[in-house]
Specification:
It comes from Dryobates pubescens (Downy woodpecker). This is NUD19 protein. By secondary structure, the chain is α+β, with helices and mostly antiparallel strands. The protein is 25% helix and 17% strand. It has one domain. It is built from four helices and five strands. Strands 3-1-2-4-5 form a five-stranded mixed β-sheet, covered by helices on one side. A hairpin with a 2-residue loop joins strand 4 and strand 5. The protein starts with 5 loop residues before the first helix and ends in a 25-residue tail after the last strand.
Length: 146
């Protein structure tokens, strides 16, 4: 067991020393907004009563990978299949790069390979939360000291 800062964990993920599931990668990118544990504590104490939102990613299969669409993204379905009973599969023959060029409202995790993730968010976070830093696992800014 090893304790790591969010930036260190992402660096280990990038170098394929560890694997991090996309939701946890997203949250580590959110934690990179804070340079210290005391900053995180202050932020969490201030926004504790603001509420939270529960949501589920929707997978869009692309020609060269896939995208986990999150609420607020322009491609997120109006009525997502929360239970899996409808068996709705979203797919396109387009490449991820083309989908990114065509879009303008993003809340997504782009996955090209198991250790190649990128978070893209340009919507306003709800409940006074902070958006994740948009970190591509191919390039890391290690400013967080948590």
């Amino acid at each position: 067991l090893q304790w790591s800062s969010p930036a260190e964990a992402i660096e280990c993920f990038k170098s394929q020393e560890i694997w991090i599931a996309p939701p946890q990668f997203y949250e580590l990118c959110r934690l990179c907004n804070f340079s210290s544990l005391s900053q995180l504590h202050k932020f969490s104490s201030q926004r504790a009563l603001e509420g939270c939102e529960r949501w589920m990613p929707v997978i869009l299969n692309a020609a060269d990978g896939y995208i986990q669409l999150l609420p607020g993204d322009e491609l997120y379905p109006e009525n997502p299949d929360y239970t899996g009973e409808k068996k709705i599969l979203m797919s396109t023959d387009k490449k991820i790069e083309d989908l990114m060029k065509e879009g303008s409202v993003f809340h997504r995790i782009v996955i090209k390979k198991p250790n190649n993730l990128a978070v893209h968010v340009n919507i306003q976070a709800k409940h006074k939360h902070l958006n994740p830093l948009m970190i591509n696992s191919d390039c890391l800014d290690g400013n967080s000291r948590l």
